Amino acid sequence: MRWFKHLTNAKNDPDMRLLLAEFGYEGYGVYWMILETIAGDMNYKEQKAKTSMAEKQWRNSVKISPKKFKQILNFCSKKFGFIIEENAKIITIECPKLLKYRDEYSRKKG
Questions:
Q1: pLDDT digits (tens, 9 = 90+) for 39-63
Q2: What is the largest CA-CA distance in the chain?
Q3: How far apart are CA 52 and CA 80, in angstroms?
Q4: Domain count, the chain
Q5: Is the separation of the CB atoms in 6 and 105 below 8 Å?
Q6: Statement: the pTM of the whole predicted model exceeds 0.85
């Protein structure tokens, strides 16, 4: 996927406000970086919005501590419907809602 729609009022969503209250802009940035990572790994044939990486790769990409990363993931799972799977040291993050925001090219091809 080359791009996805980002709602201009995303920061005003009640759950996003809770994310900001709990984790500040760090949490907000991690949320969007996760979505960008998932979207960047998708192609037009993908019917699932998910990607897998080693835990260390995820943390290095968002530059936060393991504890805080897990806290943000748990929050996103509860509030935004992220599906988190951990297998050994590999973390798969899925965001089903991302499919409805995919770019027109990807939606039409898929």
A1: 888 766 667 889 999 988 998 888 8
A2: 40
A3: 18
A4: 1
A5: no
A6: no
Domain containing 58: what range? Answer: 10-109
Gap between the Cα atoms of 78 and 93, Å rounded:
13
> 109: which 2 tokens?
């091809």
pLDDT (tens digit, 9 = 90+) per residue, 64-108?
Answer: 998 999 999 999 999 999 999 999 889 999 998 887 766 554 445
Spatial CA neighbour of 94 closest among 78, 76, 82, 81: 82
Give the Å distances, CA to CA, from 96 to 4, 46, 77, 99.
13, 11, 11, 6
Task: Let me know if residue 3 belongs to a domain.
Answer: no
CATH number at residue 88: 1.10.10
